[in-house]
Amino acid sequence: MAKRIGLITAGGDCPGLNAVIRAVAKPAMREGFEVVGISDGFLGLIEDHMRVLSFNDVSGILAQGGTILGSSNKANPGKFAVGVDKDGKVIMEDRREQCLQLIRREKIETLIVAGGDGSMTIASELAAAAHKAGHSLNVMGVPKTIDNDLVGTEITFGFQTAVSIATDALDRVKTTAASHHRVMVVEVMGRNAGWIALHSGVASGADVILIPEIPFDFEAISDCVRVRSRHGKRYSIVCVAEGAKPKGGQIFVSKVDPTSPDPIRLGGVGKAVADEVEKRTGIESRYVVLGHVQRGGSPVADDRVLSTLLGERAISMVLEGKRDRMAAVQHGRLTDVDINLPCGKQRTVPLDDPLVRAAKEVETHFGD
Ligand code: F6P
Description:
With 368 residues, this protein is α/β, with parallel strands linked by helices. It folds into two domains: 4-156 and 299-338, Rossmann fold (3-Layer(aba) Sandwich), CATH 3.40.50; 160-295, Phosphofructokinase domain (Rossmann fold, 3-Layer(aba) Sandwich), CATH 3.40.50.460. The protein contains eleven helices and 15 strands. The strands form four sheets. A seven-stranded mixed β-sheet has the order 3-2-1-6-7-14-15, sandwiched between helices. It has a four-stranded parallel β-sheet with strand order 9-10-8-13, with helices on both faces. A two-stranded antiparallel sheet has the order 4-5. Helix 6 (159-180) crosses helix 7 and helix 8 (218-230) crosses helix 9. The radius of gyration is 22 Å and the shape is elongated. The N and C termini lie far apart (62 Å). It binds 6-O-phosphono-beta-D-fructofuranose (F6P). 6-O-phosphono-beta-D-fructofuranose binds at residues 12, 73, 145-147, 189-191, 242, 265-266, 295.
């Protein structure tokens, strides 16, 4: 029987997942492996939804958005929500042993997981549980997320597409802001990291960039808008990361999903900034929340290339006999790190990041 690899796309989806599936599966199939595609992230392991992928399944999908396997950012085998008790509290069950039984039944020796920090944690916990039970399960990670916040790699696939979408939106908002002499606030994703806001803000020449790493002051933002107005700039563009917060204040939470391993859904800071700036400056202010638009559609060329490099690295590590690694980019070079490295951590924007400095040099305000 052919050796079997399980392939999972887990957590929030992002452009480039299909390119990774292709880059893992094609070489694997050529080397005689059977590639088992697990449906809907770790939910497929819990609910026993998987199928052997054919060459045709993984061919022609390079530029396709989403994931042909499906994904889930709620299914954690260690803490799986199965219902609510009489007090309305979510009941969680540990389904790891059940997942491991399935993995053994399917004779899957290696699990390749395209995911973020949460998915890498789940994968390495599964591997640890397998080892404890005397079985061997190799786990390989491919760093995915539009947020670009994985420790151990300086870039994740999906990020460059999200930045490109946000930049395009900021460019478009600028022309209508100029026509109407308004302040336009654009809220972008990124969780607790400001990478998308920083990169798209710089790329579009936003006047103010607000990131979680630099708490902002409503009055400082308003001042910046007033100064621009005095200099004849009758519009301003603010790019705000969903995780940005006022000095001494709290993050803006739009929803709490207790069934999810990462229950907080951020949102609302864009509206708060627009309302405050309008109140303080008297200049009409509007806001746009880009939301999941940033995760949809076809990956940009750089993400197609990166996904191909990272996916191929994952399968070549399996062929080399490496264990429990995550493909990564460090100092601009493709490499790999211990899969435990990104677990439970987030890579945020350092205050001395060269792009923060360069942005300040071109008069971009950080609202502080
Ligand atoms: O991690 C990716 C991401 O898009 C974050 O930027 C965002 O905070 C979150 O996922 C949104 O999650 P959901 O798809 O559950 O709304």
